[in-house]
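Components:
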Amino acid sequence: MDLISTLVINGLATGMLIFLLAAGLTLIFGLMSVLNFAHGGLFIWGAYTGVWSYQLSGSFIIGIIVAIVTGLLLGLITEKLIIRPVYGNHIQQILITLGFMLVLQEFIKVVFGPNQIAVSPPAFLQGSFYVGDVIFIKYRLFIIILGLLVYFVSMFILKRTRIGLIVRAGVMNKEMVQSLGINIRLVFMLVFMVGAALAALSGMLHAPYSGVIYAEMGLEFSILAFIVVVIGGMGSFSGSLFAAILVGIAQAFMAYYVPALSLAVNMLLMTVVLIFRPQGLFKAKG
Amino acid sequence: MMSSLLRLNQVEAFIQKFHILHDISFEVPKGEVTVLLGRNGAGKTTTLRTIMGLNKVSKGSINFQGEEIGNLLTHRIANKGIGFVPEEQGIFGELTVGENMRVAMKKEDEQTTKRMEWVLDLFPDLKKFWKKPGGALSGGQKQMLAIARAYVNENELLLIDEPSKGLAPIIVDKVTESIQQMKEQTTILLVEQNFLMASKIGKKFYIIDDGRTVHSGQMDELKEDKVLMKKYLGIS
Amino acid sequence: MNLAKVEKSTWIYLAISLLLVIVPFIVTGRSMQFIIIQFFIFAIFAMSYDILLGYTGIISFGHVMFFGIGAYSTAIVMNRFDSTILSFILAIIIAIILAAIVSLIVGMLTLRLKSHFYAMLTLALAGLFLVGAEKWRSLTGGNDGFTFSLPEILRDSQSLYMLCLLSLVLIFFGLRRLTKSPFGRVLMAIRENEKRTESLGYKIVHYKVIASVVAGVVASFAGVLYSISLRFVNTSVFATDMTIDVLLMTIIGGVGTLIGPIIGAGLVEFAHHWLSSLADVHWIFERWIILYGIVYILVVIFFPLGIVGTIQKKFFNRQNYQKKKQQNPRRKLDEGRKEDEDELYRNG
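Structure:
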C-alpha cells in the first residue's frame, strides 16, 4: 500500500514537471502551429541559471525567480530571432528549432562547464512526514502543489480574461482574430514568453528533484513533453495536464518495476494514440 | 460627386505561386452597398481577403479614406475601421456566443454597449443562445453571429462574403433584412452569388471575371441586361 | 548503350571519381586518408537523408537510428564471428535487412502523420534506440562500446578508401537514377503538393514508405562503413548530434540535389577536423557544435536552398528568362487557376 502511494506521489510530481514543460509547448503549437524543438533548451537554461543563483544566494525563491526571468528573456529572444524569420514555413521551423536546441545545450557547457552539478532541496523543503503509513516527501508535495497552482491560474487567465479569450480564439482561427483588429504576433510573443518561463520553471524545480543537472537532460525530458503533447492533443491545455499525470505515473511505476522499459512504455503509449487518435485525446476544434 | 471610401487600383495578387488577381480596380462610394459579382473562382473572395491584408498585394494600390493600406498588417487594416465577415464565417467554435462577441469588442464603452444592444435586437437568436458554444449553432445563426461580430464595433466599412451561402431561403430573407438595416449606418462591400438578394440591397455592382474587373454599373440596369448576365454570371 | 545519350554531368562526375581514385597515392598520410574516408561515409549518409528531406519533403529527426543499426550490426557480427570477408558480407546483409524491416515498420506506422508528428516521433524513436543501446549491455557494451577485429584487407587504409569511394560512386549514381525515374518524379510531386499528388490517384503513403526504406537501407550501409572505419562502436552512433550533423550537411550543400549533400559532407567533415585542431588555440573550439548550430540556423534562414541549390537557381533563372522571351508561360498557369483558387479555400 505505502509502496503504491509513494509511486503515485512520485508519478504526480514527475507529471507536474512534464506538464509545466508541455503546457508552453502545446499552447505555442495551438496558437502558431510551431512545434518548438528548442523547448528543452529553455528547460535546461532555467535549471542552470536557477540553480546557479540558488547556490550563490542560498535562497531557493531567488533561484525560482531567476529561472523564470531567464525563461521570459530567452523566450523573447527565441521568438524574435529564431521563430519569426521562418514564420509560416513549417519545414524551416522544425529544422531551425532543433538546431537552436543544440546551440542552447552546448552553450550551457560553455557558460557553466560540461560537468554535472549536484543540487539539493532547500532546508524548509527537505525531509518527509507520515500520514498514517503513507510517506510524504516534502519537496515532491511542493512540486505537485506548485504545478496545480500554475494549472489553475493559467486556466483562470484562459477562461476569464480578455487576453485568455484571445489566445483561445487564436488557437481556433488565427486569421479571424487578426481580422477583428488584434495583433496576433504580439499575442504569440507573449504566449511564447510565458511558455518559455514555464519550461524554465520546470527545469529549476526538476533540479533538486533529480538531485543533479546536466546539459543533455533538456532533450531527454522534452521527449517526455512531446509524448504528453501528442497524447493530450496538440493545443489542449487541460489535455496536457491529464496526459502529463498519466505519463508521470506510468514512468514512476515502470521505473520501479522494469526500469529499462520506462521510456519504451511511454513511446508505446504515444504511438498507440497517434495511430488510433492522431488528434490526441483532447483536441481543440475550430 | 460622391466621395469613395475605398478605392482599388489595378490590384494584383498571388496565392502561393498562382496568379489569382490580375487587374482589380473599383471604388466603393461612402454610404452605399456595392456588390461584387462573378462566377465561382473568379477571384471575389481573394479580392476581399486582399483588402483585409490576409493576402499580399503584389501590385497596385488599395486606398481607404485617402490612405494606402495595401501592405499593412491585417490587424492594422481592421483597426482603420474595416469589419470582415468571411465566407466560412470564422466562428470560434469552442467559445460561447457571448465570448465570440467579447473577442470582437475593441472597447467596452457606452457606445459599444449600445451597439451591442442594437445588434442583439436585430438577431434575438444570439441573445437566446448567449451561453451556447459557437460551434453548436445552426448555419444561419453562425452567419448572424459573424455579422454581429463585425458590426459591434464602429466600422466605416463592412466586407461581407457570400452571407447567403448554404442557408435556407427563409434565413436568407432574415440576413438580407439585417443587412438592409445596417446599410443605413455603414458602407458595405458585398460579395454575393444570390442575384435576387444582391439586387435587393445593392446599388452599384462590379463583375469580376478571371481575376479582372470587367464590368460595372447600377444594379437596377443589370437586371435588364440579359446578355451580360448570361456572359459573366451564367444566369439566363 | 548509346554514349551520346549520357548526360554531360555524368561524365563530369565520373571524371571526378577517377581523380579521387588517384588521391590516396598522393595523400599518403593516414590521418588525412581517414578524414577523406569519413567524408565519403557521411556523404553516403547525407545522400540518404536527402532522399527523405530533399526529394520527398519528409523531416526525420531519427534517421540516425538506421545509421546506428548498420554500425552495430557490423560490429556485433564481426565481434562474434571470425574476422573474414564472409562475415563482413553477412554483416552487410544483416544490416540491410534489419534497416529495411525497421524503416518499413516505422514508415507504415508513422508516415501518415503530419510533418510535426513525424519529426517528433522519429526523434523519440531514435532516443529509444539510444537508450536501448545503453541498457542492453551484453550485446552493445553500453556506453563504452567495444572494439572488434577485421580481415586484413579491410584494415588497410587504401583498400578501405577504395571500398568507400566505390560505394559512394555507386550509391550516388543509383540514387540519381532513382530520382530521375518516374518514381522519383512522384516523390518530388509529393514534396511540392501532397494533396494534389494524392488527387491524381497516387497512394502517397506507399511512395513515402518506399522512399524511407531506401533512405534507411542506404543510411544503414553508411553505418556499416562507419564502424569498420573506426573498428569500434559505441552509443554515439545513435546520438541526436549525429542527426544534426547529417541535417547540416544536407542543408548546407543543398536539399534535393544529391550532389549538394556530398559537398556539404565534405565541408562539415573538413571544418570539423580543422576546428578540433584549433582546440589547442582556444577552448571555445572544443565546443565547435555551437558554431555548427549557428551556421546551420543561419543557413536555414538565409540560404534554405543551400550551396548547390542557390547556384542552380541562379543558373536556372537565367535559362528560364531566355525561354520566357520565346513563349508566354502565363497561359499554362492560367489553365489550372480556377480550380486552384477553390481548392485552396476549401482546404484552407
